[in-house]
């Protein structure tokens, strides 16, 4: 086992050196061409939807560091194995490492927005790793340990692979043993020096890559900080004052396929409006700032949200109405789908009819008084009140292509999710928390309910099997936001109680009791929480 340490380490170091080189080359120009990012993206795209669902539900926003960590762990195991392979089969080991580089290159080349040059970092990683391994492997090959001077206790020869020299007969030990030990020491020193050099080089390259990457992000962040959002031509109503109505940007849920948050420089950004339009259009960020902007409170939620789950938030958005832009481009007859593309490579398909039906579908530039945060789609994202995010809220948007639903399936639709995703009526209990221990007396029960663009007309609460009670609804600016509700529970009887909530939407339809999982078109069912009154 101990004999494998140096070969395994040389495999690891060779791979680390190659990966660091790739990061260094990728960082300044095309961060997305990093083999790690490309392989991660490929894994995300290939992951079966239920697993992806599980990852989002279980690890939330941490699912990405976890994925990168897993990929690194797998690579480390492979690299160590290749290092061991190099002891007896050097050529095969070098080929294996080269093949890993090819896998990375293939991943980079098949990313949605790939360019041929994106293969370069991975190919370089393969070549550098192979070179490093060729250099380290001979130094890692351990000289056989000096034979034991006592007969019978020397290394067993039984298990030795064919072709390996059997242990030197003990009688011939003496001087040879001392020479061997000296040679082993020199060999170890040579290996340690070489390994140290590779480790140092790797750390330098990796550190430099990190610095370059951060300064690239900084440039986009500085451009973001320098943006002075114009006043809206059509301001929103006075902001609601109740705590919790607006979700602060840093608390707003985040769901996307982007392994690293795209840092888009608004000065280089353009939006293409293409496809089935009479006048293909290209707009710059400044063009958008010059449009009459509207300010609206809109609640956004994710189709992956479970009943009672956290993937819903409400913000005050500033944006350009989308319908006039589309009309100016001249939407052709038959075009029923807007395919939005994001800088992370996603496609999101939104019904043309929904965007043109008079609702406040916007290209959002501002969120709660700031330019969009990078995580939420800076510089520009789409928002379509009443639709789940996966069909109406493309972030880091780069183009809008007018198409048909029959000719193109967007990213999530290819993975089995419904092609159109109107939000389902939902309600949530935020207070008291599940399993809370409460004192008898008046217990404030409170939460939110949403059915964007239909609105909420009533929320009802039930304790155990008692009759449903009407909750009080707090005022809202439009049907496009969630509604905060409260109800005072006269909690008199000690023991366990179940609180249940349901809502009625603006059309008078009662929220369905029918339980459904998020896949394929959103969860449904009434939420209940169990609490104890002392
Ligand atoms: N570019 C891009 N836009 C995207 C996604 C994505 O993966 N990439 N995810 C969508 C989904 S599933 C949701 S629910 C919302 C989430 O927006 P948020 O992260 O700002 O809350 O963004 C949508 N827009
Ligand atoms: Mo979503």
Radius of gyration: 30 Å
Main sheet properties: 5 strands, mixed
Residue windows where pLDDT falls under 50 for at least 5 positions: 150-173
Q: Return the domain count.
A: 3
* Small molecules bound in the structure, each named once: ligand MTE, molybdenum atom
Distance between the termini: 61 Å
Total strand segments = 19
Mean pLDDT: 91
Shape: globular
Strand content: 15-25%
Total number of helices: 12
Q: Percent helix among the residues?
A: 25-40%
Order of adjacent strands in the largest pleated sheet: 2-1-10-5-6
Please state the structural category.
Answer: alpha+beta
Keywords: Membrane, Signal, Transmembrane, Transmembrane helix
Biased composition (Pro residues): 143-152
Protein name: Oxidoreductase molybdopterin-binding domain-containing protein
Biased composition (Low complexity): 153-175
Helix-strand blueprint:
Layout: H1 5-29, H2 35-46, H3 49-59, H4 63-88, H5 90-109, H6 120-140, H7 175-225, E1 270-275, E2 281-284, H8 285-290, E3 294-301, E4 312-321, H9 322-329, E5 337-342, E6 347-351, H10 352-355, E7 362-367, E8 370-371, E9 381-383, H11 389-392, E10 397-403, H12 411-414, E11 426-431, E12 437-438, E13 441-450, E14 456-463, E15 469-470, E16 472-473, E17 483-491, E18 495-505, E19 527-533
Parallel strand pairs: 1-10, 12-19
Antiparallel strand pairs: 1-2, 3-4, 4-7, 5-6, 5-10, 7-8, 7-9, 11-13, 13-17, 14-15, 14-18, 16-17, 18-19
Bound molecules: the ligand Nc1nc2c(c(=O)[nH]1)N[C@H]1C(S)=C(S)[C@@H](COP(=O)(O)O)O[C@H]1N2 and molybdenum atom (MO).
């Amino acid at each position: 086992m101990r004999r494998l340490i140096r070969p395994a380490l040389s495999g690891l170091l060779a791979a680390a050196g190659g990966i660091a080189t790739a990061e260094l080359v990728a960082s300044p120009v095309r961060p997305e061409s990093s083999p790690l990012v490309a392989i991660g993206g490929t894994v995300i795209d290939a992951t079966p939807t239920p697993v992806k669902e599980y990852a989002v539900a279980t690890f939330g926003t941490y699912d990405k560091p976890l994925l990168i960590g897993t990929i690194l762990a797998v690579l480390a195991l492979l690299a160590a194995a290749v290092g061991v392979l190099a002891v007896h089969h050097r050529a095969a080991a070098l080929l294996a490492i080269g093949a890993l580089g090819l896998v990375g290159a293939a991943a980079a080349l098949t990313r949605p927005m790939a360019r041929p040059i994106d293969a370069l970092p991975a190919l370089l990683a393969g070549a550098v790793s192979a070179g490093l391994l060729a250099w380290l492997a001979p130094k890692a090959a351990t000289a056989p340990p000096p034979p034991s001077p006592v007969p019978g206790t020397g290394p067993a020869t039984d298990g030795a692979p064919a072709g390996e020299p059997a242990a030197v007969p003990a009688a011939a030990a003496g001087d040879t043993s001392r020479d061997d030990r000296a040679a082993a020491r020199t060999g170890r020193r040579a290996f340690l020096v070489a390994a140290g050099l590779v480790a140092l080089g790797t750390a330098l390259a990796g550190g430099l890559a990190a610095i370059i990457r951060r300064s690239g992000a900084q440039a986009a962040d500085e451009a973001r900080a320098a943006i002075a959002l114009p006043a809206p031509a059509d301001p929103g109503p006075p902001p609601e004052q109740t705590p919790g109505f607006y979700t602060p940007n840093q608390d707003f849920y985040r769901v996307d396929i982007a392994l690293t948050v795209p840092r888009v420089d608004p000065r280089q950004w353009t939006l293409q409006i293409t496809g089935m339009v009479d006048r293909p259009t290209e707009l710059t960020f400044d063009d958008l700032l010059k449009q009459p902007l509207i300010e609206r409170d809109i609640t956004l939620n994710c189709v992956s949200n479970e009943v009672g789950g956290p993937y819903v938030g409400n913000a005050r958005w500033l944006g350009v109405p989308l319908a006039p832009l589309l009309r100016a481009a001249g939407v052709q007859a038959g075009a029923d789908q807007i395919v939005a593309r994001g800088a992370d490579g996603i496609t999101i398909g939104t019904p043309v009819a929904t965007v043109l039906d008079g609702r406040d579908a916007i290209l959002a530039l501002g969120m709660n008084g700031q330019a969009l945060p990078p995580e939420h789609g800076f510089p520009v994202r789409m928002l379509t009140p009443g639709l789940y995010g996966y069909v109406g809220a493309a972030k880091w948007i780069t183009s809008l292509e007018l198409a048909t639903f029959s000719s193109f399936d967007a990213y999530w639709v290819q993975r089995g999710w419904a092609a159109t995703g109107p939000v389902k009526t939902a309600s949530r209990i935020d207070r008291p928390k599940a399993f809370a221990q409460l004192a008898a007396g008046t217990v404030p029960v409170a939460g939110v309910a949403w059915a964007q663009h239909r609105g909420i007309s009533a929320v009802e609460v039930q304790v155990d099997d008692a009759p449903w009670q009407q909750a009080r609804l707090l005022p809202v600016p439009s049907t496009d936001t969630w509604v905060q509700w409260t109800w005072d529970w006269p909690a008199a009887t000690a023991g366990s109680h179940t609180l249940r909530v349901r809502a009625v939407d603006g059309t008078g339809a009662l929220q369905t009791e029918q339980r459904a999982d998020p896949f394929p078109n959103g969860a449904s069912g009434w939420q209940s929480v169990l609490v104890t009154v002392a």
